[in-house]
Amino acid sequence: MRTDAVPLPIPPARTPADLPAETPARTPARTPADLPAETPARTPARTPADLPAETPARTPAGAPVGAQAAAPAAPAGQARVLTLTGDALTPADVAALARRTLRPAVDATARDRVAGARDAALRATARKRVYGHTTGVGANRTTDVPASAADAFGMNLLRSHSGGIGPVVPDEQARAMLAVRLNQLLGAGSALGLDVVDRIADALASGHVPTLHAYGAVGTADLSALGELGLTLAGELPWSGGDPWTPPPAPVVLTHWDALPLMSSSALTIGQTALAATDLARLLDRLPLVAALTLTAVRGSAESYAAQVHARRPHPGATRLAARMRTLLADADWEAPLVQDPFGLRCLPQVHGAALEAAEALDRILGVELNAAAENPLLDADGLDYHHHGGFHQAGLALAGDQFRLALLGTAQLSTARLGVLVEPAFTGLAPYLAADVHGSSGIMITEYAAQSALAELRAFAQPVTLGHAVLSRGVEEHASFASTGARRLLDSVEPFRLVLACELLAAVRALRLRGLAPSGDGELRAFYDHADSVLDPTVADRNLTGAVTAAADLLTA
Protein backbone atom coordinates (compact mmCIF):
# COMPACT_ATOMS: atom_id res chain seq x y z
CA MET A 1 0.00 0.00 0.00
CA ARG A 2 1.24 3.51 -0.76
CA THR A 3 0.52 6.90 0.76
CA ASP A 4 0.57 8.64 -2.62
CA ALA A 5 -2.35 6.65 -4.02
CA VAL A 6 -5.07 8.39 -5.94
CA PRO A 7 -8.33 7.59 -4.08
CA LEU A 8 -11.47 6.91 -6.06
CA PRO A 9 -15.15 7.34 -5.13
CA ILE A 10 -16.44 4.97 -2.47
CA PRO A 11 -18.74 2.27 -3.83
CA PRO A 12 -21.35 0.40 -1.83
CA ALA A 13 -20.03 -2.95 -0.71
CA ARG A 14 -21.04 -6.21 0.81
CA THR A 15 -19.94 -6.66 4.38
CA PRO A 16 -16.54 -8.25 4.85
CA ALA A 17 -18.24 -11.34 6.31
CA ASP A 18 -19.77 -12.01 2.91
CA LEU A 19 -16.38 -12.56 1.29
CA PRO A 20 -15.44 -16.28 1.36
CA ALA A 21 -12.33 -17.02 3.35
CA GLU A 22 -9.42 -18.95 1.91
CA THR A 23 -7.48 -22.00 2.92
CA PRO A 24 -4.39 -21.33 5.02
CA ALA A 25 -2.10 -22.09 2.09
CA ARG A 26 -3.62 -19.47 -0.12
CA THR A 27 -3.19 -15.72 0.15
CA PRO A 28 -6.10 -14.37 2.22
CA ALA A 29 -8.10 -11.35 1.28
CA ARG A 30 -6.79 -8.19 2.83
CA THR A 31 -9.24 -7.29 5.54
CA PRO A 32 -9.58 -3.78 6.95
CA ALA A 33 -7.36 -4.73 9.87
CA ASP A 34 -4.57 -5.65 7.46
CA LEU A 35 -4.48 -2.24 5.82
CA PRO A 36 -1.59 -0.04 6.97
CA ALA A 37 -2.31 3.08 8.93
CA GLU A 38 -1.15 5.25 6.07
CA THR A 39 -3.96 4.05 3.80
CA PRO A 40 -5.56 7.16 2.31
CA ALA A 41 -8.48 8.36 4.33
CA ARG A 42 -11.90 7.56 2.93
CA THR A 43 -13.84 10.42 1.55
CA PRO A 44 -17.23 10.88 3.20
CA ALA A 45 -19.88 8.57 1.83
CA ARG A 46 -22.10 10.34 -0.65
CA THR A 47 -24.97 7.90 -0.17
CA PRO A 48 -28.15 9.53 1.04
CA ALA A 49 -30.10 7.16 3.24
CA ASP A 50 -33.08 7.26 0.93
CA LEU A 51 -31.20 6.37 -2.23
CA PRO A 52 -32.37 3.19 -3.99
CA ALA A 53 -30.38 -0.03 -3.67
CA GLU A 54 -27.70 -0.94 -6.17
CA THR A 55 -28.95 -2.02 -9.55
CA PRO A 56 -29.35 -5.81 -9.45
CA ALA A 57 -26.86 -7.90 -11.37
CA ARG A 58 -28.08 -9.02 -14.77
CA THR A 59 -29.27 -12.58 -15.07
CA PRO A 60 -27.55 -14.40 -17.89
CA ALA A 61 -29.70 -16.05 -20.48
CA GLY A 62 -29.15 -19.32 -22.23
CA ALA A 63 -26.32 -21.66 -21.32
CA PRO A 64 -24.84 -21.36 -17.79
CA VAL A 65 -21.75 -19.26 -17.37
CA GLY A 66 -21.27 -19.70 -13.65
CA ALA A 67 -23.59 -16.84 -12.70
CA GLN A 68 -24.43 -16.29 -9.07
CA ALA A 69 -26.79 -13.67 -7.72
CA ALA A 70 -25.01 -10.56 -6.50
CA ALA A 71 -25.33 -9.80 -2.81
CA PRO A 72 -26.84 -6.48 -1.74
CA ALA A 73 -24.31 -3.72 -1.39
CA ALA A 74 -23.35 -2.58 2.09
CA PRO A 75 -23.16 1.10 3.04
CA ALA A 76 -20.34 2.87 1.25
CA GLY A 77 -18.38 3.65 4.37
CA GLN A 78 -17.79 -0.05 5.02
CA ALA A 79 -15.65 -0.48 1.91
CA ARG A 80 -11.93 -0.04 2.45
CA VAL A 81 -9.23 0.94 -0.01
CA LEU A 82 -7.03 -1.44 -1.96
CA THR A 83 -4.24 0.36 -3.80
CA LEU A 84 -3.44 -1.17 -7.17
CA THR A 85 0.23 -1.05 -8.11
CA GLY A 86 0.40 -3.49 -11.01
CA ASP A 87 2.44 -6.09 -9.15
CA ALA A 88 0.66 -7.26 -5.98
CA LEU A 89 -2.93 -8.26 -6.81
CA THR A 90 -4.21 -11.61 -5.46
CA PRO A 91 -7.24 -13.73 -6.38
CA ALA A 92 -8.87 -12.77 -3.09
CA ASP A 93 -8.31 -9.09 -3.93
CA VAL A 94 -10.06 -9.58 -7.25
CA ALA A 95 -13.03 -11.20 -5.50
CA ALA A 96 -13.21 -8.37 -2.97
CA LEU A 97 -13.11 -5.70 -5.68
CA ALA A 98 -15.65 -7.55 -7.82
CA ARG A 99 -17.96 -7.99 -4.83
CA ARG A 100 -17.30 -4.45 -3.68
CA THR A 101 -15.98 -5.20 -0.21
CA LEU A 102 -12.90 -3.22 -1.23
CA ARG A 103 -12.74 -0.07 -3.32
CA PRO A 104 -9.84 0.63 -5.64
CA ALA A 105 -7.23 3.34 -5.57
CA VAL A 106 -4.50 3.72 -8.18
CA ASP A 107 -0.90 4.01 -7.03
CA ALA A 108 0.53 7.39 -8.05
CA THR A 109 3.88 5.93 -9.08
CA ALA A 110 2.12 3.40 -11.29
CA ARG A 111 0.13 6.21 -12.92
CA ASP A 112 3.36 8.05 -13.63
CA ARG A 113 4.78 4.89 -15.18
CA VAL A 114 1.80 4.64 -17.52
CA ALA A 115 1.99 8.32 -18.42
CA GLY A 116 5.68 8.08 -19.25
CA ALA A 117 5.36 5.10 -21.60
CA ARG A 118 4.05 7.05 -24.60
CA ASP A 119 7.34 8.82 -25.33
CA ALA A 120 9.18 5.48 -25.49
CA ALA A 121 6.51 4.11 -27.80
CA LEU A 122 6.83 7.05 -30.18
CA ARG A 123 10.56 6.54 -30.44
CA ALA A 124 10.20 2.80 -30.99
CA THR A 125 7.57 3.07 -33.72
CA ALA A 126 9.65 5.73 -35.50
CA ARG A 127 12.35 3.18 -36.28
CA LYS A 128 10.53 -0.18 -36.73
CA ARG A 129 7.25 -1.73 -37.83
CA VAL A 130 5.10 -2.51 -34.80
CA TYR A 131 2.20 -4.94 -34.91
CA GLY A 132 -1.18 -3.34 -34.38
CA HIS A 133 0.23 0.18 -34.46
CA THR A 134 1.84 0.50 -37.86
CA THR A 135 0.49 -2.79 -39.26
CA GLY A 136 -2.74 -4.73 -39.32
CA VAL A 137 -3.34 -7.68 -36.99
CA GLY A 138 -3.64 -11.45 -37.37
CA ALA A 139 -3.27 -12.53 -40.96
CA ASN A 140 -3.21 -8.81 -41.87
CA ARG A 141 0.08 -8.32 -40.05
CA THR A 142 1.85 -7.71 -43.36
CA THR A 143 -0.44 -4.78 -44.21
CA ASP A 144 0.98 -1.39 -43.33
CA VAL A 145 -1.30 1.17 -41.69
CA PRO A 146 -0.35 4.78 -42.57
CA ALA A 147 -0.10 7.23 -39.70
CA SER A 148 -3.00 9.22 -41.12
CA ALA A 149 -5.29 6.19 -40.74
CA ALA A 150 -3.92 4.77 -37.49
CA ASP A 151 -6.53 6.17 -35.10
CA ALA A 152 -9.44 5.18 -37.32
CA PHE A 153 -7.83 1.75 -37.63
CA GLY A 154 -7.73 1.48 -33.83
CA MET A 155 -11.46 2.15 -33.44
CA ASN A 156 -12.27 -0.21 -36.29
CA LEU A 157 -10.18 -2.85 -34.57
CA LEU A 158 -12.34 -2.51 -31.45
CA ARG A 159 -15.55 -2.58 -33.48
CA SER A 160 -14.57 -5.63 -35.49
CA HIS A 161 -13.35 -7.60 -32.48
CA SER A 162 -16.25 -6.80 -30.15
CA GLY A 163 -18.72 -9.30 -31.60
CA GLY A 164 -19.12 -11.61 -28.62
CA ILE A 165 -22.17 -13.87 -28.53
CA GLY A 166 -24.17 -15.86 -26.03
CA PRO A 167 -25.33 -15.00 -22.52
CA VAL A 168 -24.40 -11.73 -20.87
CA VAL A 169 -21.61 -12.07 -18.33
CA PRO A 170 -22.84 -11.30 -14.77
CA ASP A 171 -21.83 -7.95 -13.31
CA GLU A 172 -19.59 -9.50 -10.65
CA GLN A 173 -17.53 -11.21 -13.31
CA ALA A 174 -17.39 -8.05 -15.43
CA ARG A 175 -16.04 -6.15 -12.41
CA ALA A 176 -13.46 -8.89 -11.90
CA MET A 177 -12.33 -8.30 -15.47
CA LEU A 178 -12.04 -4.56 -14.84
CA ALA A 179 -9.98 -5.17 -11.70
CA VAL A 180 -7.59 -7.50 -13.50
CA ARG A 181 -7.17 -5.34 -16.59
CA LEU A 182 -6.67 -2.17 -14.56
CA ASN A 183 -3.93 -3.77 -12.50
CA GLN A 184 -2.22 -5.25 -15.55
CA LEU A 185 -2.23 -1.93 -17.39
CA LEU A 186 -0.43 -0.31 -14.46
CA GLY A 187 2.59 -2.39 -15.45
CA ALA A 188 2.98 -0.08 -18.47
CA GLY A 189 3.59 -2.79 -21.01
CA SER A 190 2.00 -0.57 -23.64
CA ALA A 191 1.51 3.11 -24.44
CA LEU A 192 -2.20 3.06 -23.65
CA GLY A 193 -3.46 6.44 -22.53
CA LEU A 194 -3.64 7.38 -18.87
CA ASP A 195 -7.20 8.61 -19.41
CA VAL A 196 -8.22 5.04 -20.32
CA VAL A 197 -6.70 3.74 -17.10
CA ASP A 198 -8.53 6.38 -15.11
CA ARG A 199 -11.89 5.59 -16.75
CA ILE A 200 -11.53 1.88 -15.95
CA ALA A 201 -10.68 2.79 -12.36
CA ASP A 202 -13.74 5.05 -12.21
CA ALA A 203 -15.99 2.26 -13.46
CA LEU A 204 -14.60 -0.23 -10.96
CA ALA A 205 -15.13 2.24 -8.13
CA SER A 206 -18.71 3.13 -9.07
CA GLY A 207 -19.80 -0.37 -10.01
CA HIS A 208 -20.52 0.40 -13.66
CA VAL A 209 -19.78 -2.44 -16.07
CA PRO A 210 -19.74 -2.94 -19.82
CA THR A 211 -22.16 -5.44 -21.32
CA LEU A 212 -20.01 -8.48 -22.10
CA HIS A 213 -20.97 -11.66 -23.91
CA ALA A 214 -19.69 -14.99 -22.73
CA TYR A 215 -18.49 -16.52 -25.98
CA GLY A 216 -15.75 -14.93 -28.05
CA ALA A 217 -12.39 -16.16 -26.73
CA VAL A 218 -10.36 -19.34 -27.17
CA GLY A 219 -7.70 -18.83 -24.51
CA THR A 220 -5.44 -16.52 -26.49
CA ALA A 221 -6.84 -13.17 -25.20
CA ASP A 222 -10.41 -12.15 -24.44
CA LEU A 223 -10.72 -10.19 -27.64
CA SER A 224 -14.49 -9.80 -27.85
CA ALA A 225 -15.05 -8.94 -24.18
CA LEU A 226 -12.24 -6.38 -24.11
CA GLY A 227 -13.41 -5.04 -27.46
CA GLU A 228 -16.81 -4.49 -25.87
CA LEU A 229 -15.09 -2.71 -23.00
CA GLY A 230 -13.26 -0.49 -25.49
CA LEU A 231 -16.45 0.54 -27.25
CA THR A 232 -18.08 1.22 -23.88
CA LEU A 233 -15.16 3.42 -22.84
CA ALA A 234 -15.48 5.27 -26.15
CA GLY A 235 -19.20 5.85 -25.62
CA GLU A 236 -20.39 3.65 -28.48
CA LEU A 237 -21.92 1.13 -26.07
CA PRO A 238 -23.68 1.99 -22.79
CA TRP A 239 -22.47 1.26 -19.29
CA SER A 240 -24.70 -0.94 -17.15
CA GLY A 241 -25.39 -1.11 -13.41
CA GLY A 242 -23.43 1.13 -11.09
CA ASP A 243 -24.30 3.33 -8.16
CA PRO A 244 -27.45 5.31 -8.88
CA TRP A 245 -25.86 8.43 -7.40
CA THR A 246 -22.72 8.21 -9.58
CA PRO A 247 -22.79 8.86 -13.33
CA PRO A 248 -21.04 6.35 -15.56
CA PRO A 249 -17.53 7.17 -16.73
CA ALA A 250 -17.43 9.89 -19.37
CA PRO A 251 -16.50 8.75 -22.89
CA VAL A 252 -12.84 8.90 -23.82
CA VAL A 253 -11.32 9.29 -27.27
CA LEU A 254 -9.44 6.09 -28.07
CA THR A 255 -6.50 6.00 -30.49
CA HIS A 256 -4.37 3.27 -32.01
CA TRP A 257 -2.24 3.46 -28.85
CA ASP A 258 -5.26 2.18 -26.89
CA ALA A 259 -7.12 -0.31 -29.08
CA LEU A 260 -4.88 -3.36 -29.41
CA PRO A 261 -3.20 -2.93 -26.00
CA LEU A 262 -6.61 -2.87 -24.30
CA MET A 263 -7.61 -6.15 -25.94
CA SER A 264 -4.24 -7.86 -25.52
CA SER A 265 -5.15 -9.67 -22.31
CA SER A 266 -7.22 -12.53 -20.91
CA ALA A 267 -8.54 -10.33 -18.11
CA LEU A 268 -12.06 -11.79 -18.14
CA THR A 269 -10.78 -15.36 -18.07
CA ILE A 270 -8.31 -14.53 -15.31
CA GLY A 271 -10.92 -12.64 -13.29
CA GLN A 272 -13.47 -15.46 -13.55
CA THR A 273 -10.84 -17.97 -12.51
CA ALA A 274 -9.87 -15.81 -9.53
CA LEU A 275 -13.50 -15.62 -8.37
CA ALA A 276 -13.97 -19.37 -8.62
CA ALA A 277 -10.63 -20.14 -6.97
CA THR A 278 -11.47 -17.88 -4.03
CA ASP A 279 -14.86 -19.50 -3.48
CA LEU A 280 -13.56 -23.03 -3.88
CA ALA A 281 -10.72 -22.34 -1.46
CA ARG A 282 -13.33 -21.73 1.22
CA LEU A 283 -15.07 -25.02 0.46
CA LEU A 284 -11.81 -26.96 0.37
CA ASP A 285 -11.05 -25.57 3.80
CA ARG A 286 -14.46 -26.65 5.13
CA LEU A 287 -14.36 -30.17 3.72
CA PRO A 288 -12.12 -31.66 6.46
CA LEU A 289 -14.62 -30.46 9.08
CA VAL A 290 -17.44 -32.29 7.31
CA ALA A 291 -15.37 -35.43 6.84
CA ALA A 292 -14.32 -35.36 10.50
CA LEU A 293 -17.98 -35.23 11.56
CA THR A 294 -18.67 -38.26 9.39
CA LEU A 295 -15.75 -40.14 10.91
CA THR A 296 -17.00 -39.21 14.38
CA ALA A 297 -20.52 -40.42 13.58
CA VAL A 298 -19.32 -43.87 12.43
CA ARG A 299 -16.50 -44.08 14.99
CA GLY A 300 -13.95 -44.41 12.21
CA SER A 301 -10.21 -44.82 12.53
CA ALA A 302 -7.73 -41.95 12.58
CA GLU A 303 -4.79 -44.20 11.66
CA SER A 304 -4.98 -43.02 8.04
CA TYR A 305 -3.96 -39.54 9.21
CA ALA A 306 -0.99 -40.61 11.34
CA ALA A 307 2.13 -38.52 10.98
CA GLN A 308 4.22 -41.66 10.52
CA VAL A 309 2.21 -42.64 7.45
CA HIS A 310 2.71 -39.32 5.70
CA ALA A 311 6.34 -38.87 6.72
CA ARG A 312 7.13 -41.92 4.59
CA ARG A 313 5.17 -40.60 1.57
CA PRO A 314 5.36 -36.84 2.02
CA HIS A 315 3.11 -35.40 -0.66
CA PRO A 316 2.47 -31.81 0.50
CA GLY A 317 -1.31 -31.82 0.14
CA ALA A 318 -1.82 -35.19 1.80
CA THR A 319 0.57 -34.28 4.62
CA ARG A 320 -1.24 -31.00 5.26
CA LEU A 321 -4.68 -32.61 5.17
CA ALA A 322 -3.61 -35.38 7.53
CA ALA A 323 -2.23 -32.84 9.98
CA ARG A 324 -5.51 -30.94 9.84
CA MET A 325 -7.48 -34.11 10.55
CA ARG A 326 -5.22 -34.97 13.49
CA THR A 327 -5.92 -31.55 14.95
CA LEU A 328 -9.67 -31.83 14.42
CA LEU A 329 -9.75 -35.32 15.95
CA ALA A 330 -7.27 -34.68 18.76
CA ASP A 331 -9.93 -35.27 21.42
CA ALA A 332 -11.40 -38.41 19.85
CA ASP A 333 -12.06 -40.95 22.62
CA TRP A 334 -13.26 -44.12 20.89
CA GLU A 335 -11.84 -47.36 19.58
CA ALA A 336 -12.56 -47.88 15.89
CA PRO A 337 -14.67 -51.02 15.34
CA LEU A 338 -13.10 -51.80 11.95
CA VAL A 339 -9.51 -52.58 11.06
CA GLN A 340 -9.84 -50.38 7.97
CA ASP A 341 -12.46 -47.83 6.98
CA PRO A 342 -13.92 -47.40 3.47
CA PHE A 343 -11.98 -45.27 1.00
CA GLY A 344 -14.11 -42.20 1.66
CA LEU A 345 -12.42 -41.89 5.05
CA ARG A 346 -9.19 -43.86 4.60
CA CYS A 347 -8.06 -42.24 1.33
CA LEU A 348 -9.12 -38.70 2.23
CA PRO A 349 -5.53 -37.40 2.56
CA GLN A 350 -4.52 -38.74 -0.83
CA VAL A 351 -7.58 -37.54 -2.75
CA HIS A 352 -8.34 -34.27 -1.01
CA GLY A 353 -4.63 -33.57 -0.66
CA ALA A 354 -4.35 -33.72 -4.45
CA ALA A 355 -7.13 -31.12 -4.68
CA LEU A 356 -5.25 -28.86 -2.28
CA GLU A 357 -2.12 -29.14 -4.41
CA ALA A 358 -4.10 -28.43 -7.57
CA ALA A 359 -5.59 -25.33 -5.93
CA GLU A 360 -2.12 -24.13 -5.00
CA ALA A 361 -0.83 -24.73 -8.52
CA LEU A 362 -3.67 -22.66 -9.95
CA ASP A 363 -3.02 -19.94 -7.39
CA ARG A 364 0.60 -19.69 -8.50
CA ILE A 365 -0.46 -19.25 -12.11
CA LEU A 366 -3.00 -16.62 -11.12
CA GLY A 367 -0.38 -14.77 -9.09
CA VAL A 368 1.62 -14.27 -12.27
CA GLU A 369 -1.27 -13.50 -14.61
CA LEU A 370 -2.94 -10.96 -12.33
CA ASN A 371 0.23 -8.89 -12.28
CA ALA A 372 1.52 -9.47 -15.79
CA ALA A 373 2.24 -6.79 -18.34
CA ALA A 374 1.89 -9.19 -21.25
CA GLU A 375 0.55 -7.06 -24.08
CA ASN A 376 1.61 -8.07 -27.56
CA PRO A 377 3.63 -6.27 -28.71
CA LEU A 378 5.21 -5.53 -25.34
CA LEU A 379 6.71 -2.09 -24.82
CA ASP A 380 10.12 -1.98 -23.21
CA ALA A 381 10.15 1.65 -22.10
CA ASP A 382 13.72 1.49 -20.80
CA GLY A 383 15.01 -0.04 -24.02
CA LEU A 384 12.84 2.17 -26.26
CA ASP A 385 11.69 -0.94 -28.08
CA TYR A 386 8.74 -3.23 -28.73
CA HIS A 387 8.93 -7.02 -28.49
CA HIS A 388 6.53 -9.26 -30.41
CA HIS A 389 5.71 -12.44 -28.50
CA GLY A 390 3.06 -15.03 -27.55
CA GLY A 391 2.59 -14.17 -23.90
CA PHE A 392 -1.15 -13.82 -24.42
CA HIS A 393 -1.44 -17.62 -24.76
CA GLN A 394 -3.02 -19.07 -21.61
CA ALA A 395 -1.76 -22.67 -21.86
CA GLY A 396 -0.57 -22.64 -18.23
CA LEU A 397 -3.83 -21.30 -16.87
CA ALA A 398 -5.88 -23.75 -18.92
CA LEU A 399 -3.84 -26.75 -17.77
CA ALA A 400 -3.95 -25.65 -14.12
CA GLY A 401 -7.72 -25.18 -14.37
CA ASP A 402 -8.15 -28.63 -15.91
CA GLN A 403 -6.13 -30.19 -13.11
CA PHE A 404 -8.13 -28.36 -10.44
CA ARG A 405 -11.53 -29.32 -11.84
CA LEU A 406 -10.50 -32.96 -12.11
CA ALA A 407 -9.20 -32.87 -8.54
CA LEU A 408 -12.45 -31.32 -7.32
CA LEU A 409 -14.33 -34.16 -8.93
CA GLY A 410 -12.24 -36.69 -7.05
CA THR A 411 -12.73 -35.10 -3.66
CA ALA A 412 -16.48 -34.71 -4.33
CA GLN A 413 -16.66 -38.40 -5.25
CA LEU A 414 -15.22 -39.23 -1.83
CA SER A 415 -17.87 -37.04 -0.20
CA THR A 416 -20.65 -39.02 -1.90
CA ALA A 417 -18.88 -42.21 -0.76
CA ARG A 418 -18.96 -40.99 2.84
CA LEU A 419 -22.64 -40.15 2.42
CA GLY A 420 -23.15 -43.78 1.39
CA VAL A 421 -21.43 -44.88 4.59
CA LEU A 422 -23.70 -42.67 6.70
CA VAL A 423 -26.93 -44.16 5.34
CA GLU A 424 -25.73 -47.75 5.84
CA PRO A 425 -26.79 -49.43 9.14
CA ALA A 426 -23.64 -51.59 9.18
CA PHE A 427 -21.58 -48.47 9.88
CA THR A 428 -23.97 -46.46 12.09
CA GLY A 429 -26.15 -49.03 13.84
CA LEU A 430 -29.11 -46.87 12.87
CA ALA A 431 -32.06 -47.42 10.56
CA PRO A 432 -31.32 -47.37 6.82
CA TYR A 433 -31.05 -43.85 5.41
CA LEU A 434 -30.94 -42.44 8.96
CA ALA A 435 -34.73 -42.73 8.96
CA ALA A 436 -37.21 -42.63 11.78
CA ASP A 437 -37.53 -46.35 12.45
CA VAL A 438 -41.18 -46.63 11.40
CA HIS A 439 -42.82 -48.48 8.53
CA GLY A 440 -40.11 -48.22 5.88
CA SER A 441 -39.34 -44.54 6.30
CA SER A 442 -36.98 -43.22 3.60
CA GLY A 443 -35.15 -40.73 5.81
CA ILE A 444 -32.48 -38.88 3.85
CA MET A 445 -32.37 -41.37 0.99
CA ILE A 446 -33.07 -38.66 -1.61
CA THR A 447 -29.89 -36.81 -0.65
CA GLU A 448 -27.86 -39.63 -2.18
CA TYR A 449 -29.66 -39.13 -5.48
CA ALA A 450 -29.33 -35.35 -5.26
CA ALA A 451 -25.62 -35.56 -4.44
CA GLN A 452 -25.00 -37.92 -7.33
CA SER A 453 -26.90 -35.57 -9.64
CA ALA A 454 -24.70 -32.66 -8.55
CA LEU A 455 -21.66 -34.91 -8.93
CA ALA A 456 -22.67 -35.61 -12.53
CA GLU A 457 -22.53 -31.86 -13.18
CA LEU A 458 -19.02 -31.74 -11.76
CA ARG A 459 -18.05 -34.66 -13.95
CA ALA A 460 -19.24 -32.80 -17.03
CA PHE A 461 -17.44 -29.61 -15.98
CA ALA A 462 -14.22 -31.57 -15.35
CA GLN A 463 -13.81 -32.41 -19.05
CA PRO A 464 -10.35 -30.99 -19.90
CA VAL A 465 -10.65 -27.96 -22.15
CA THR A 466 -7.06 -28.38 -23.28
CA LEU A 467 -8.22 -31.30 -25.42
CA GLY A 468 -9.65 -28.66 -27.75
CA HIS A 469 -7.86 -27.32 -30.79
CA ALA A 470 -8.41 -24.50 -33.24
CA VAL A 471 -6.63 -23.02 -36.25
CA LEU A 472 -7.67 -19.41 -36.79
CA SER A 473 -6.88 -16.24 -38.70
CA ARG A 474 -6.09 -17.88 -42.02
CA GLY A 475 -3.79 -20.41 -40.40
CA VAL A 476 -1.37 -18.06 -38.63
CA GLU A 477 -2.85 -18.71 -35.18
CA GLU A 478 -2.72 -22.47 -35.09
CA HIS A 479 -3.20 -23.31 -31.40
CA ALA A 480 -5.64 -22.35 -28.65
CA SER A 481 -5.75 -23.18 -24.93
CA PHE A 482 -9.49 -22.63 -24.36
CA ALA A 483 -8.69 -21.30 -20.89
CA SER A 484 -11.75 -19.06 -21.27
CA THR A 485 -14.01 -22.11 -21.41
CA GLY A 486 -12.14 -23.62 -18.47
CA ALA A 487 -12.74 -20.50 -16.40
CA ARG A 488 -16.49 -20.70 -16.97
CA ARG A 489 -16.47 -24.40 -16.13
CA LEU A 490 -14.60 -23.69 -12.88
CA LEU A 491 -17.21 -21.10 -11.94
CA ASP A 492 -19.92 -23.60 -12.82
CA SER A 493 -18.29 -26.13 -10.49
CA VAL A 494 -18.62 -24.05 -7.33
CA GLU A 495 -22.30 -24.65 -6.62
CA PRO A 496 -22.56 -28.40 -7.30
CA PHE A 497 -19.40 -28.95 -5.24
CA ARG A 498 -20.92 -26.98 -2.38
CA LEU A 499 -24.15 -28.97 -2.59
CA VAL A 500 -22.38 -32.33 -2.56
CA LEU A 501 -20.61 -31.34 0.65
CA ALA A 502 -23.89 -30.02 2.06
CA CYS A 503 -25.57 -33.39 1.60
CA GLU A 504 -22.78 -35.07 3.57
CA LEU A 505 -22.90 -32.41 6.28
CA LEU A 506 -26.66 -32.82 6.71
CA ALA A 507 -26.28 -36.60 7.01
CA ALA A 508 -23.34 -36.43 9.42
CA VAL A 509 -25.16 -34.08 11.80
CA ARG A 510 -28.28 -36.23 11.65
CA ALA A 511 -26.31 -39.42 12.38
CA LEU A 512 -24.58 -37.81 15.36
CA ARG A 513 -27.91 -36.65 16.76
CA LEU A 514 -29.56 -40.05 16.33
CA ARG A 515 -26.61 -41.76 18.03
CA GLY A 516 -26.53 -39.19 20.83
CA LEU A 517 -22.96 -38.28 19.97
CA ALA A 518 -20.98 -35.09 19.52
CA PRO A 519 -17.32 -34.34 18.86
CA SER A 520 -15.24 -34.49 22.02
CA GLY A 521 -13.46 -31.49 23.45
CA ASP A 522 -14.03 -27.82 22.71
CA GLY A 523 -11.93 -27.30 19.59
CA GLU A 524 -12.74 -26.26 16.04
CA LEU A 525 -14.66 -29.44 15.20
CA ARG A 526 -16.93 -29.15 18.22
CA ALA A 527 -17.61 -25.48 17.49
CA PHE A 528 -18.47 -26.32 13.88
CA TYR A 529 -20.80 -29.11 14.98
CA ASP A 530 -22.52 -26.98 17.63
CA HIS A 531 -23.18 -24.27 15.05
CA ALA A 532 -24.56 -26.78 12.57
CA ASP A 533 -26.63 -28.42 15.28
CA SER A 534 -28.16 -25.04 16.15
CA VAL A 535 -29.05 -24.25 12.53
CA LEU A 536 -30.19 -27.53 10.98
CA ASP A 537 -33.74 -28.69 11.66
CA PRO A 538 -33.64 -31.76 13.97
CA THR A 539 -36.86 -33.27 12.61
CA VAL A 540 -36.35 -36.91 11.58
CA ALA A 541 -39.81 -37.58 10.19
CA ASP A 542 -40.00 -37.90 6.41
CA ARG A 543 -40.16 -34.40 4.90
CA ASN A 544 -38.93 -32.29 2.03
CA LEU A 545 -35.18 -31.85 2.51
CA THR A 546 -34.45 -29.11 -0.01
CA GLY A 547 -34.40 -26.42 2.65
CA ALA A 548 -32.26 -28.55 4.94
CA VAL A 549 -29.61 -29.08 2.27
CA THR A 550 -29.71 -25.37 1.44
CA ALA A 551 -29.16 -24.51 5.10
CA ALA A 552 -26.23 -26.93 5.26
CA ALA A 553 -24.76 -25.39 2.11
CA ASP A 554 -25.01 -21.94 3.65
CA LEU A 555 -23.06 -23.18 6.68
CA LEU A 556 -20.19 -24.09 4.37
CA THR A 557 -19.82 -20.53 3.11
CA ALA A 558 -20.73 -18.69 6.31
Q: How would you describe the overall organization of this protein?
A:
This protein is 47% helix and 6% strand. The protein has two domains: 6-43 and 72-265, Fumarase/aspartase (N-terminal domain) (Fumarase C, Chain B, domain 1, Orthogonal Bundle); 274-556, Fumarase C, Chain A, domain 2 (Up-down Bundle), CATH 1.20.200.10. Helix 10 packs across helix 12 (348-369), helix 12 (348-369) runs antiparallel to helix 13 and helix 13 runs parallel beside helix 16. With 558 residues, the chain is mainly alpha-helical. The chain has helices at residues 91-98, 108-125, 150-161, 171-185, 194-206, 223-233, 256-263, 267-297, 307-311, 316-328, 343-346, 348-369, 395-422, 425-428, 445-461, 483-515, 524-535, 546-556, and strands at residues 6-7, 80-84, 102-106, 165-168, 208-210, 213-215, 239-241, 378-380, 385-387. The strands form four sheets. The chain has a three-stranded mixed beta sheet. A two-stranded antiparallel sheet has the order 4-6. The longest helix is centred in the C-terminal third of the chain and has 33 residues, at 483-515.
In short, what is this structure?
The protein is mainly α and 558 residues long. Helix content is 47%, strand content 6%.
The name of the CATH topology of the largest domain is: Fumarase C, Chain A, domain 2
CATH architecture of the largest domain: Up-down Bundle
Largest sheet: 3 strands, mixed
Q: Assign a percent range to the helix content.
A: 40-55%
- How large is the count of helical segments? 18
CATH superfamily of the largest domain: Fumarase/aspartase (Central domain)
Mean pLDDT: 87
Structural class: mainly alpha
Question: Given the C-alpha coordinates, what overall shape results?
Answer: elongated
Low-confidence stretches: 1-76
Strand order in space, largest sheet: 1-3-2
Name the helix and strand elements from N-terminus to C-terminus, one letter apiece. EEHEHHEHHEEHEHHHHHHEEHHHHHH
Strand composition percent: 5-15%
Q: How many strand segments?
A: 9
Rg measurement, Å:
26 Å
Q: How far apart are the first and last residues' alpha carbons, in Å? A: 29 Å
